[in-house]
Amino acid sequence: MTHLKRAGLCTAAVFAISLGSATAETTSETFASMDANTDGLVSEAEFVSYSTTRKGHTLDEASAKFASIAGDDGLLSLAELLAVMPGDVTDDTSPGRS
Predict the structure, then answer these.
(1) Backbone angles phi, psi at 45, to 5 degrees
(2) Which of 40, 54, 77, 81 is most enclosed, with most CB atoms within 10 A?
(3) What does the DSSP 8-state code read for residue 39?
(4) Cα-flanking dihedrals φ and ψ of residue 76, to 5°?
(5) 57 and 68 in contact (C-beta within 8 Å)?
(6) pLDDT computed for residue 8 by the predictor
(7) Is the pTM value of this prediction over 0.70?
(8) What's the rounded Cα separation, in Å, for the pair 59 and 61?
């Protein structure tokens, strides 16, 4: 893995972690909050809207972060969000949680 790609992934992980709220919102809850049309995928517009209105990021910051974590299809899935938030043990999709 190149240093540039590794740096991008680290930046994406830090940003994704900042998406959680101070009330320990799970990754699934954060994802659901972003998924305005409830289709199970987050578009760039949904991500940017969530990030700018709820997290105070600029349009450029939010767009860049989306591009760094969304798949090649230009959509963000819950699995992709979980991949950049590996330390999120509060997620309700973790094994052993009911």
Answers:
(1) -60, -40
(2) 81
(3) S
(4) -105, 125
(5) no
(6) 53
(7) no
(8) 6
Q: Tell me how far apart the alpha carbons of residues 43 and 96 are, in angstroms, rounded to a whole number.
A: 30
C-alpha to C-alpha distance for 93 and 98, rounded to whole angstroms: 8
> Contacts by 86-95 with C-beta closer than 8 Å and gap 24+?
86/13, 87/17, 88/20, 88/26, 88/27, 90/24, 90/26, 90/27, 91/26, 91/27, 91/28, 92/26, 92/28, 92/29, 93/27, 93/28
In the chain (98 residues long), the average pLDDT of successive 10-residue segments reads: 51 52 75 97 97 96 96 93 71 43
Residues pairing with 76 in the sheet: 42
Contact between 47 and 62 (Cβ < 8 Å): yes
> 3-class DSSP state for residue 76?
strand
Inter-CA distances, 90 with 47, 55, 95, Å: 21, 20, 11
* 31-40 per-position pLDDT tens digit: 999 999 999 9
